[in-house]
Design brief:
Helix content: 55-70%
Number of helices: 9
Number of strands: 5
CATH architecture of the largest domain: 3-Layer(aba) Sandwich
Number of domains: 2
Strand order of the largest sheet: 2-1-3-4-5
Radius of gyration: 18 Å
Order of helices and strands: HHHHEHEHEHEHEH
CATH superfamily of the largest domain: Cobalamin-binding domain
C-alpha cells in the first residue's frame, strides 16, 4: 500500500525525520493509523530486529531505527488515546531490587516496542510490590525482570510469589533474564519463561501473551 513500504524503509534506515514526515502524509491521505503502525512502523522494525538477531547490524543501528519508529509513533499517539489503535500487549519491565544494571533490560524494551508492545519501564532497583502493583494498574499481561547479580535473582521469586498470593499467576505471566540466569534457575524461581538475550525475550513474550496459563 502507498506509503507503508516507504515508512518501513525509513525506519530501517534510522531516518526519524523521514519516518515522521511520511507518517503524517499517510494520515493526510486517509490511511488508518493502525495500518500505518502495523504495515509501516512495526514492519520496518521487525526487519531491523531480525537483522540484529542475525548479526547483520549492530546496537547503534538498532537504536537509530528505534528512534525513528518512536518519533513516528508520537504522531500516532492521539489515536491510541482515542481508542482507535491497539497495542500487541502491555509489558512491565524492570531491574529487580538491589540491582542497578539496566543495559540488557533497556534493549529488551526497545525491541518489544519495535514489535508493537506497550512497555512500562520501571527502571532499576524495583521492589516486588511495585512490579505487581504497576502490572495490575496498567493492565499488563507480562512482567519482565532483569538481574545481573546472583544475589538479587531471588527477588524474582518474590514477585512470582506475590502474584500467586494475589491470585494473579494465570493472568500476569513472568519472564526473567540477565547474566546469572538460566532455564533451570528461572524454573526454580517459578518464572514462566527465561530469555538469554533481547531477541529471544521478544519471541517468548509473544508466546506468553498469546498462550494463556
Amino acid at each position: 500500500m502507498k506509503y507503508l513500504d516507504e515508512i518501513a524503509a525509513k525506519v530501517q534506515d534510522g531516518d526519524d525525520a523521514g519516518a515522521e514526515e511520511l507518517t503524517r502524509a499517510a494520515l493526510d491521505e486517509g490511511l488508518a493509523p493502525q495500518s500505518i503502525l502495523d504495515g509501516g512502523l512495526i514492519a520496518g522494525m521487525t526487519v531491523v530486529g531480525q537483522r540484529f538477531s542475525d548479526y547483520e547490524i549492530f546496537l547503534p543501528d538498532l537504536l537509530l531505527a528505534a528512534k525513528a519508529m518512536q518519533t513516528a509513533v508520537t504522531v500516532l499517539e492521539p489515536y491510541f488515546l482515542k481508542g482507535e489503535m491497539t497495542a500487541a500487549g502491555t509489558v512491565v519491565l524492570g531491574t529487580v531490587r538491589g540491582d542497578l544494571h539496566d543495559i540488557g533490560k533497556n534493549l529488551v524494551g526497545i525491541m518489544l516496542k519495535g514489535v508493537g508492545f506497550r512497555v512500562i519501564d520501571l527502571g532499576k532497583d524495583v521492589a516486588p510490590e511495585v512490579f505487581v502493583d504497576t502490572a495490575v494498574e496498567q493492565g499488563a499481561s507480562v512482567i519482565g525482570m532483569s538481574a545481573l547479580l546472583t544475589t538479587t535473582a531471588p527477588v524474582m521469586a518474590e514477585v512470582v510469589n506475590l502474584l500467586g498470593e494475589r491470585g494473579l499467576s494465570g493472568e500476569i505471566r513472568t519472564i526473567v533474564g540477565g547474566a546469572p540466569m538460566s532455564e533451570e534457575l528461572a524454573a526454580s524461581l517459578g518464572a514462566d519463561a527465561y530469555a538469554f538475550d533481547a531477541p529471544s525475550a521478544v519471541d517468548r513474550v509473544k508466546k506468553l501473551v498469546v498462550t494463556p496459563a
